[in-house]
Amino acid sequence: MGSITDVYSSVCKELKLRTNRYILEVLQETEGKTGDITLKLTGNDRLRKVEQVTNKDALALSRTLRDNDSVTGLDLRYNCITDEGAGHLADLLKSNDALLSLRLTGNKIGNGGAMHFASMLQVNSTLQELDVADSDLGTQSVIAFAIVLNNNKSLRSVNISRPLLFSHQEETAVHLSGMLVVNQCLRELHLGKMGMTDCGVERLTDALRTNYTLKYLDLRCNHVTRDGARCLAKVLKNNGTLEILDLAFNRIEDDGALYLSQAIALPTCNLKALSIPSNNIATVGLVSLSRAMQANNTLTHIYIWGNRLEEPVCQAFSDLLSSGRLSSEQTDVCVYEVDGCVCLAEVFHGLKRHYYWTPSYGQDVNPASNAAVTLTNTQLYPN
């Protein structure tokens, strides 16, 4: 067998497909490399001339990688892959046991494409990371993923954020809750932009009380209020497994922050990172969180920008930063003074600030902007 570039060119010739110069260029860069290889074929890369990957390109890639054991990551974010291309990639994963991660964020594979992957997961026993966020999944496919994860023992991280759900009955939360009771392998679950309410969070937390493997729960951009925060606080009090909780862009307010503070202050809480930007939290809630950090040293990362940062809050977080209890690299605010008054300004730090895009200069995987990567230590490829 020739080089991977030769194999790709041969496949394109056999299938009578036009060679994608972007794919060819990336494959050429892997020549001579040993060990784990990630093919980064993102459609939104601003640093190189991109030719977006289509369904036909997905077919060619599937055939090229079928017998390849060097490529362990395939990053196809923001391309033009639909359900047809998803079918080709699912076929690849049924026959290839070297691939450990697949990212399809932003490809509109829809219900049909997602069902191909759900079917694949019944056969594949090696894939560890699957990201199909912003891919127009529907209720049917989200439920299908939940069902297949009851038996899948290999997946460690699943991202099904921003599906297109039109029901308010929380069917998806019910099935995901049932999955969490059974599945004891999953480490990360990303459920952002799902329209989830406190009722759905309650169903999830009922399951999390007996789940001792999930470390990262992402509930950003949902409809979680103080009641949902109370349910999550009960989990933090009784189950020391959860280490990262992302509640950004919800509405837990002061009451919700107080519930979380009470849990964080307990020695049984092992939470390392809490993200709560834009939750309409004011002085009472934010000051209580700062006090909880003084009581429990486990929480090292906290993100609060977008809330009501009044003077007592500014002073409390200034004290945390100046004392060294909170590192400036592990929060999204910095301190400055105006006429003797302490104020807070935003800095570009967070759990996954580079998730939707990458900077056109500087460090791509800056730990301060992508803290979740460092905290989980499960990322299989560079961002």
Automatic annotation (TrEMBL):
<dbReference type="InterPro" id="IPR032675">
    <property type="entry name" value="LRR_dom_sf"/>
</dbReference>
<dbReference type="InterPro" id="IPR052201">
    <property type="entry name" value="LRR-containing_regulator"/>
</dbReference>
<dbReference type="InterPro" id="IPR001611">
    <property type="entry name" value="Leu-rich_rpt"/>
</dbReference>
<dbReference type="Pfam" id="PF13516">
    <property type="entry name" value="LRR_6"/>
</dbReference>
<protein>
    <submittedName>
        <fullName>Leucine-rich repeat-containing protein 34</fullName>
    </submittedName>
</protein>
<keyword id="KW-0677">Repeat</keyword>
